[in-house]
Automatic annotation (TrEMBL):
The gene is fmt. It holds the Pfam family Formyl_trans_N. Residues 203-298 form the Formyl transferase C-terminal domain. It comes from Niveibacterium umoris. (6S)-5,6,7,8-tetrahydrofolate binds at S109, L110, L111, P112. Keywords: Protein biosynthesis, Transferase. SUPFAM superfamilies: FMT C-terminal domain-like, Formyltransferase. Belongs to the Fmt family. This is Methionyl-tRNA formyltransferase. Attaches a formyl group to the free amino group of methionyl-tRNA(fMet). The formyl group appears to play a dual role in the initiator identity of N-formylmethionyl-tRNA by promoting its recognition by IF2 and preventing the misappropriation of this tRNA by the elongation apparatus.
Protein backbone atom coordinates (compact mmCIF):
# COMPACT_ATOMS: atom_id res chain seq x y z
CA UNK A 1 0.00 0.00 0.00
CA UNK A 2 1.51 3.29 -1.15
CA UNK A 3 0.77 6.02 1.37
CA UNK A 4 1.38 9.62 0.34
CA UNK A 5 1.47 11.99 3.31
CA UNK A 6 0.46 15.65 3.65
CA UNK A 7 1.24 17.55 6.85
CA UNK A 8 3.32 20.33 8.30
CA UNK A 9 3.80 20.72 12.11
CA UNK A 10 5.08 18.33 14.78
CA UNK A 11 1.59 16.87 15.25
CA UNK A 12 1.78 15.63 11.66
CA UNK A 13 5.41 14.52 11.98
CA UNK A 14 4.43 12.18 14.82
CA UNK A 15 1.89 10.50 12.53
CA UNK A 16 4.44 10.19 9.73
CA UNK A 17 6.90 8.55 12.17
CA UNK A 18 4.26 5.99 13.09
CA UNK A 19 3.46 5.24 9.43
CA UNK A 20 7.14 4.77 8.60
CA UNK A 21 7.73 2.63 11.69
CA UNK A 22 4.86 0.39 10.57
CA UNK A 23 6.73 -0.25 7.32
CA UNK A 24 4.49 1.53 4.82
CA UNK A 25 5.85 2.70 1.48
CA UNK A 26 5.69 6.52 1.52
CA UNK A 27 6.57 7.68 -2.01
CA UNK A 28 5.91 11.40 -1.43
CA UNK A 29 5.42 13.93 1.34
CA UNK A 30 3.56 17.20 0.84
CA UNK A 31 4.21 20.02 3.26
CA UNK A 32 3.99 23.80 3.49
CA UNK A 33 6.79 25.88 1.93
CA UNK A 34 9.69 26.80 4.21
CA UNK A 35 8.90 29.89 6.33
CA UNK A 36 11.09 32.49 8.06
CA UNK A 37 11.30 31.93 11.81
CA UNK A 38 13.26 33.02 14.86
CA UNK A 39 14.95 36.32 15.59
CA UNK A 40 17.09 36.06 12.48
CA UNK A 41 14.03 35.18 10.36
CA UNK A 42 15.95 32.38 8.68
CA UNK A 43 14.04 30.05 6.38
CA UNK A 44 13.06 26.94 8.33
CA UNK A 45 11.73 23.64 7.02
CA UNK A 46 8.62 22.19 8.64
CA UNK A 47 9.00 19.27 11.08
CA UNK A 48 7.39 17.01 8.46
CA UNK A 49 9.87 18.04 5.78
CA UNK A 50 12.81 17.53 8.12
CA UNK A 51 11.60 14.03 8.97
CA UNK A 52 10.94 13.14 5.34
CA UNK A 53 14.43 14.23 4.27
CA UNK A 54 15.97 12.16 7.08
CA UNK A 55 14.27 9.11 5.54
CA UNK A 56 15.10 10.01 1.95
CA UNK A 57 11.47 10.63 0.99
CA UNK A 58 10.80 13.09 -1.85
CA UNK A 59 9.14 16.30 -0.67
CA UNK A 60 6.84 18.62 -2.62
CA UNK A 61 5.94 22.08 -1.26
CA UNK A 62 3.33 23.69 -3.53
CA UNK A 63 1.82 26.99 -2.43
CA UNK A 64 -1.58 25.64 -3.52
CA UNK A 65 -2.98 22.44 -5.03
CA UNK A 66 -5.54 23.96 -7.34
CA UNK A 67 -4.01 23.37 -10.78
CA UNK A 68 -2.88 20.24 -12.60
CA UNK A 69 0.65 21.64 -12.62
CA UNK A 70 0.60 22.00 -8.82
CA UNK A 71 -0.80 18.45 -8.56
CA UNK A 72 1.61 16.90 -11.06
CA UNK A 73 4.08 15.37 -8.59
CA UNK A 74 1.27 13.91 -6.50
CA UNK A 75 -0.35 12.40 -9.59
CA UNK A 76 2.89 10.75 -10.66
CA UNK A 77 3.35 8.70 -7.46
CA UNK A 78 -0.02 6.93 -7.85
CA UNK A 79 -0.64 6.64 -4.13
CA UNK A 80 -3.28 4.23 -2.86
CA UNK A 81 -4.24 6.66 -0.09
CA UNK A 82 -3.23 10.14 1.04
CA UNK A 83 -2.98 10.63 4.81
CA UNK A 84 -3.48 14.24 5.85
CA UNK A 85 -2.62 15.74 9.24
CA UNK A 86 -2.54 19.48 9.92
CA UNK A 87 -1.40 20.18 6.37
CA UNK A 88 -2.67 23.75 6.11
CA UNK A 89 -3.90 23.63 2.52
CA UNK A 90 -7.40 22.86 1.27
CA UNK A 91 -7.46 19.78 -0.95
CA UNK A 92 -9.65 20.30 -4.03
CA UNK A 93 -11.97 17.55 -5.20
CA UNK A 94 -9.53 16.55 -7.96
CA UNK A 95 -6.94 15.66 -5.30
CA UNK A 96 -9.48 13.94 -3.03
CA UNK A 97 -10.39 11.71 -5.98
CA UNK A 98 -6.83 10.79 -6.95
CA UNK A 99 -6.03 7.83 -4.66
CA UNK A 100 -7.85 4.50 -4.83
CA UNK A 101 -8.90 4.83 -1.18
CA UNK A 102 -9.25 8.62 -1.18
CA UNK A 103 -7.79 10.99 1.41
CA UNK A 104 -7.89 10.28 5.14
CA UNK A 105 -7.51 12.98 7.78
CA UNK A 106 -6.18 12.72 11.35
CA UNK A 107 -8.21 15.31 13.28
CA UNK A 108 -7.50 16.27 16.89
CA UNK A 109 -11.05 16.26 18.25
CA UNK A 110 -14.07 14.03 18.62
CA UNK A 111 -15.94 15.20 15.56
CA UNK A 112 -18.31 16.85 15.00
CA UNK A 113 -17.10 18.88 17.99
CA UNK A 114 -14.35 21.35 17.10
CA UNK A 115 -14.11 21.29 13.37
CA UNK A 116 -11.53 23.76 12.13
CA UNK A 117 -8.04 25.05 12.80
CA UNK A 118 -7.58 25.01 16.59
CA UNK A 119 -9.46 22.06 18.13
CA UNK A 120 -6.97 21.46 20.97
CA UNK A 121 -6.95 25.09 22.13
CA UNK A 122 -10.71 25.47 21.95
CA UNK A 123 -11.43 22.24 23.82
CA UNK A 124 -9.35 23.44 26.78
CA UNK A 125 -10.73 26.97 26.62
CA UNK A 126 -14.31 25.65 26.64
CA UNK A 127 -13.68 23.43 29.65
CA UNK A 128 -14.32 20.15 27.80
CA UNK A 129 -13.67 17.09 29.94
CA UNK A 130 -12.48 14.98 27.03
CA UNK A 131 -11.23 15.25 23.49
CA UNK A 132 -9.65 12.70 21.19
CA UNK A 133 -8.73 11.74 17.65
CA UNK A 134 -11.03 11.15 14.71
CA UNK A 135 -9.79 9.40 11.58
CA UNK A 136 -12.01 10.83 8.86
CA UNK A 137 -12.61 10.14 5.17
CA UNK A 138 -12.11 13.59 3.66
CA UNK A 139 -14.66 15.35 1.51
CA UNK A 140 -14.82 18.87 0.11
CA UNK A 141 -16.20 20.36 3.35
CA UNK A 142 -14.31 21.62 6.40
CA UNK A 143 -13.85 18.50 8.56
CA UNK A 144 -17.27 17.25 7.48
CA UNK A 145 -16.35 13.82 6.10
CA UNK A 146 -17.48 10.42 7.34
CA UNK A 147 -15.78 9.09 10.47
CA UNK A 148 -13.71 5.90 10.27
CA UNK A 149 -12.28 5.68 13.81
CA UNK A 150 -12.68 7.74 16.98
CA UNK A 151 -10.85 7.43 20.27
CA UNK A 152 -11.46 9.59 23.33
CA UNK A 153 -8.85 11.07 25.67
CA UNK A 154 -9.67 12.71 29.04
CA UNK A 155 -8.41 16.28 29.42
CA UNK A 156 -6.41 16.55 32.62
CA UNK A 157 -7.19 19.69 34.67
CA UNK A 158 -3.51 20.65 34.36
CA UNK A 159 -3.28 20.07 30.60
CA UNK A 160 -2.10 22.94 28.44
CA UNK A 161 -2.32 22.99 24.67
CA UNK A 162 1.32 21.90 24.63
CA UNK A 163 0.82 18.81 26.81
CA UNK A 164 -2.49 17.82 25.25
CA UNK A 165 -1.03 18.28 21.76
CA UNK A 166 1.72 15.77 22.53
CA UNK A 167 -0.74 13.18 23.86
CA UNK A 168 -3.02 13.56 20.86
CA UNK A 169 -0.11 13.44 18.40
CA UNK A 170 0.90 10.03 19.74
CA UNK A 171 -2.71 8.85 19.66
CA UNK A 172 -3.09 10.09 16.08
CA UNK A 173 -0.09 8.03 15.00
CA UNK A 174 -1.46 4.95 16.73
CA UNK A 175 -4.91 5.33 15.22
CA UNK A 176 -3.79 5.90 11.63
CA UNK A 177 -1.58 2.81 11.78
CA UNK A 178 -4.59 0.89 13.09
CA UNK A 179 -6.80 2.27 10.32
CA UNK A 180 -4.58 1.79 7.26
CA UNK A 181 -4.68 -2.02 6.98
CA UNK A 182 -8.44 -1.98 7.49
CA UNK A 183 -8.77 0.66 4.77
CA UNK A 184 -6.71 -1.51 2.42
CA UNK A 185 -8.98 -4.48 3.11
CA UNK A 186 -12.14 -2.34 2.78
CA UNK A 187 -13.10 -3.28 6.34
CA UNK A 188 -13.94 0.23 7.51
CA UNK A 189 -17.57 1.24 7.97
CA UNK A 190 -17.70 5.02 7.46
CA UNK A 191 -20.19 6.74 9.77
CA UNK A 192 -21.68 10.13 8.86
CA UNK A 193 -21.08 12.82 11.44
CA UNK A 194 -24.19 13.67 13.46
CA UNK A 195 -25.81 16.99 12.72
CA UNK A 196 -26.09 17.79 16.43
CA UNK A 197 -23.11 19.03 18.41
CA UNK A 198 -21.19 20.74 15.63
CA UNK A 199 -18.77 23.43 16.85
CA UNK A 200 -16.10 25.40 15.03
CA UNK A 201 -12.57 25.88 16.38
CA UNK A 202 -11.52 29.25 14.99
CA UNK A 203 -7.82 29.92 14.46
CA UNK A 204 -6.04 31.43 17.46
CA UNK A 205 -4.99 35.07 17.05
CA UNK A 206 -2.51 37.20 18.99
CA UNK A 207 -5.33 39.59 19.87
CA UNK A 208 -6.91 36.87 22.03
CA UNK A 209 -3.93 37.02 24.40
CA UNK A 210 -5.34 40.15 26.08
CA UNK A 211 -6.65 39.14 29.51
CA UNK A 212 -9.77 40.94 30.70
CA UNK A 213 -10.08 40.48 34.46
CA UNK A 214 -13.77 41.38 34.26
CA UNK A 215 -14.29 37.81 33.06
CA UNK A 216 -14.68 34.88 35.50
CA UNK A 217 -11.48 33.50 37.00
CA UNK A 218 -12.37 29.96 35.89
CA UNK A 219 -12.55 31.06 32.26
CA UNK A 220 -9.29 33.01 32.47
CA UNK A 221 -7.47 30.03 34.01
CA UNK A 222 -8.66 27.85 31.13
CA UNK A 223 -7.61 30.45 28.58
CA UNK A 224 -4.09 30.55 30.02
CA UNK A 225 -3.87 26.78 29.66
CA UNK A 226 -5.34 26.93 26.15
CA UNK A 227 -2.95 29.67 25.03
CA UNK A 228 0.22 27.92 26.23
CA UNK A 229 2.54 27.93 24.28
CA UNK A 230 0.85 30.46 21.92
CA UNK A 231 -0.08 33.25 22.29
CA UNK A 232 0.00 33.23 26.10
CA UNK A 233 -1.92 35.75 28.15
CA UNK A 234 -1.04 39.45 28.30
CA UNK A 235 -2.07 42.09 30.85
CA UNK A 236 -0.80 45.64 31.30
CA UNK A 237 0.67 46.73 34.63
CA UNK A 238 2.18 50.19 35.04
CA UNK A 239 2.24 50.49 31.23
CA UNK A 240 4.28 47.28 30.88
CA UNK A 241 2.91 44.24 29.06
CA UNK A 242 3.20 41.29 31.43
CA UNK A 243 2.85 37.80 29.99
CA UNK A 244 0.72 35.47 32.07
CA UNK A 245 1.29 31.74 31.67
CA UNK A 246 -0.30 29.86 34.54
CA UNK A 247 -3.15 30.64 36.89
CA UNK A 248 -5.72 28.96 39.10
CA UNK A 249 -9.19 30.10 40.04
CA UNK A 250 -9.94 30.59 43.74
CA UNK A 251 -13.02 31.71 45.66
CA UNK A 252 -13.16 35.31 46.78
CA UNK A 253 -14.06 38.74 45.58
CA UNK A 254 -12.10 41.87 44.62
CA UNK A 255 -12.28 44.60 42.01
CA UNK A 256 -11.38 43.19 38.57
CA UNK A 257 -7.66 43.63 37.91
CA UNK A 258 -6.76 44.60 41.46
CA UNK A 259 -3.89 42.73 43.13
CA UNK A 260 -5.02 41.23 46.43
CA UNK A 261 -1.72 39.60 47.38
CA UNK A 262 1.67 38.94 45.78
CA UNK A 263 4.08 36.37 47.21
CA UNK A 264 5.80 33.10 46.34
CA UNK A 265 2.41 31.39 46.19
CA UNK A 266 1.34 33.64 43.31
CA UNK A 267 -0.12 36.99 42.36
CA UNK A 268 -3.76 36.99 43.43
CA UNK A 269 -5.95 39.15 41.19
CA UNK A 270 -9.61 40.09 41.37
CA UNK A 271 -11.87 38.97 38.52
CA UNK A 272 -15.47 39.44 37.48
CA UNK A 273 -16.18 36.27 39.41
CA UNK A 274 -13.67 34.78 41.84
CA UNK A 275 -9.93 35.38 42.11
CA UNK A 276 -7.13 34.29 39.77
CA UNK A 277 -3.84 33.20 41.36
CA UNK A 278 -1.10 33.74 38.78
CA UNK A 279 1.78 31.33 39.37
CA UNK A 280 3.93 31.85 36.28
CA UNK A 281 4.60 35.25 34.71
CA UNK A 282 7.05 36.96 32.37
CA UNK A 283 8.14 40.59 32.23
CA UNK A 284 9.11 42.27 28.95
CA UNK A 285 12.41 40.88 27.68
CA UNK A 286 12.52 38.28 30.45
CA UNK A 287 11.87 34.58 30.85
CA UNK A 288 8.88 32.67 32.11
CA UNK A 289 9.29 32.53 35.88
CA UNK A 290 7.52 31.09 38.86
CA UNK A 291 5.74 33.83 40.82
CA UNK A 292 8.37 34.00 43.60
CA UNK A 293 11.24 34.45 41.13
CA UNK A 294 9.21 36.94 39.08
CA UNK A 295 8.48 39.07 42.16
CA UNK A 296 12.17 39.23 43.10
CA UNK A 297 12.79 41.05 39.83
CA UNK A 298 9.54 43.02 39.81
CA UNK A 299 8.07 43.48 43.30
CA UNK A 300 4.30 44.00 43.39
CA UNK A 301 2.19 45.28 46.23
CA UNK A 302 -1.41 44.64 47.16
CA UNK A 303 -3.50 47.50 45.89
CA UNK A 304 -1.77 47.78 42.52
CA UNK A 305 -3.93 46.89 39.55
CA UNK A 306 -3.70 45.48 36.05
CA UNK A 307 -5.29 47.70 33.43
CA UNK A 308 -8.58 46.54 31.97
CA UNK A 309 -8.86 46.40 28.16
CA UNK A 310 -11.07 49.04 26.64
CA UNK A 311 -14.55 47.72 26.04
Amino acid sequence: MRVAFAGTPEFAAEALRAILAAGYDVPLVLTQPDRPAGRGMQMVASPVKQLALQHGIPVDQPEKLRTEEQQATLRMVKADVIVVAAYGLILPQAVLDLPRFGCVNIHASLLPRWRGAAPIHRAIEAGDRETGITIMQMDAGLDTGDMLLRRALPIDPADTTATLHDKLAVMGGELIVEALPRIALCEMAPAPQPAAGVTYAAKITKAEAAIDFRQPAELLARRLRAFDPFPGGVATLNESAIKLWKGFAEPGSAAPGSIVAADAEGVLVGCGQGLLRLTELQKPGGKRLAAGDFLRGLPLQAGAAFALPQA
